[in-house]
Amino acid sequence: MLIPKITLEEHDDIFPYIHNLKNKLDYVFVNIDSHSDMSMRKNEKKIDLGNFISELIFNGSFNENIWIKNKKNIYPDFLNGKYNFLVGEDIDLSLKSTLAHLYFLSENSYKKAEELKNSKKVDFYVCDLVDNIKLNLKNKKWILSLDYDFFSCKNPYLKNLNLEDINIILKSIPTETFESLRAEAYEVRNEKEFEIFTNKLVNINPNIIKYMGEYFFSEFRSSKNEIENLILQINHFILNHFKTEDCLGIFLIKSISSGFTDEIDYPLIDELVKKHLLNNY
To answer: Is the C-alpha dihedral spanning 41, 47, 53, 58 positive or negative?
Structure first.
């Protein structure tokens, strides 16, 4: 194992460990997390816990990334499937994706391939532990990153939002309309469709876009039995797709200071992960 089993405070703390690896591209990055962390950095070149993965892809650290999300996540960044795209540098030195998906379109980080330079290809797989997708990774080396908010996820943005305003907005939208919009969001495939979709939101309620990125953000907790069951499923997934001897490193991410992991649940999660997961690798 090139990298020992390491516990880190926040997810972007991984960056220097992986960035300095010599055998770049020769492994799969497995991210078990409530969030995809696939945002693109802006032109100030600031690496943070939301964009460190795209930065590592752009720097040539790896080109295969698996995001395993919790089934309780009702507002996932991406639906299950395989996404192939490029990550490249724009004229303002920000990073952009060539995937015309709501996730990138909504943060203004989509660009056509010919508009980018130094682009790197990425195969991005999205699944959960129940509905796996077909993967052919058995003979590849791998690095595991396990964010504890996978088991217990909080929304740290809520404290800065006007919840009274949001409740008024939500009450003005029939449940059927809301569910229809949520499904439609994942069908956006280009800039024109994104424009049509956002205009539809504005027509329903002009203020909904203001809160879309920060309020519609899954929160959930897991019982001890649920955590133990998830760990068993993680072990099963790994043994099903990889060889234990091909593991290059394991990172455990607390995510307490950012507010994504519930501080109350952390000791139990940490105890169970170290007892039932780490001993296997």
So the answer is: positive
